[in-house]
Amino acid sequence: MSLYFAYTPNVKTRKAELVFFFESNRCHLTHSDRVPRIPFEFENIDLNTYKKIVAFAEEHRLSEYEIMLSGNEPLEEILKFLSNYLLDNDASIGLLTSNIDSIDLNRELLERFGVTVPNPYVARDFFENFAPTRQKETRGPVEAGFIDAEGAVKVCKKPKRPPVCPGSAEPPKRKPKVNLNKTCAIELDESFHDKFIRLLIESGKENVEIYKKAGVTRQVFSKIISDKGMIPTKLTLISLCIGLELSLKAAKELMISAGYSLSRSIMLDAIVMKYLREEIYDFELINSELDEYGCQLLGWHPRDN
Fold this sequence. Notes:
Structural class: alpha/beta
Number of helices: 13
Mean pLDDT: 77
Distance between the termini: 21 Å
Oligomer: single chain
Order of helices and strands: EEEEHEHEHHHEEHHHHHHHH
Low-confidence stretches: 124-155, 300-305
Largest sheet: 6 strands, mixed
Strand content: 5-15%
Radius of gyration: 24 Å
């Protein structure tokens, strides 16, 4: 259950498997042979267009995908729809923009709906996949360039050839490569799955009590337990930490094992940490404060009681 907003200059540079984007009154889908490349056509890009994308994703059981904004959407309506949708559905949806200024212009709106903005908010995949070359006006050979994390183009000079040893016609021999597999033993920490199962047993609670309190469906909870490779979304995991009534230290360790973190620079995280620190696990109270600050709510619903 997560919604994020990031900048990327070109949707085709994204490494993500599923990215929806708009061209010539058609909704296209990149990087997938499992579903149609053109889900549907439209007249205007509006809220209904996004509802069709979500419906298409549900139909094809897509739980993680991104949507490239055209810049003409009613952003507030879309954020409200997606944030409400994610309250009842375990999914991760990313909104991408090619206008880097739009993040600062809509910062207040994004915070109101609890939308995560990466810091830095340039999509990381862009720098990993997009390394163009440039040609300098020089008589020498073309030098390869790359884009650094600040967005500046830097030039890499070709490495010089090793000098020839005196009295020898051949360059010095290179040192043999070290086989790390033989010399270095890498010890991994306890996996997320093993840590979660251990905390589940230590809690002494029934499974149904935990997932109902956390507002997580039985299907999602069962998959986390049975599938060792299953990593829930950040909001689902935060809800489970509260359902397990973990201490702040234990919650942070569990989040780290899943590849997440709790940060005081994010309002939702700061509020959750406050309650975990005080060992207060009242979902209604926590969600009340999250709602007051315009954050996305955790997975508690009155109908679960």
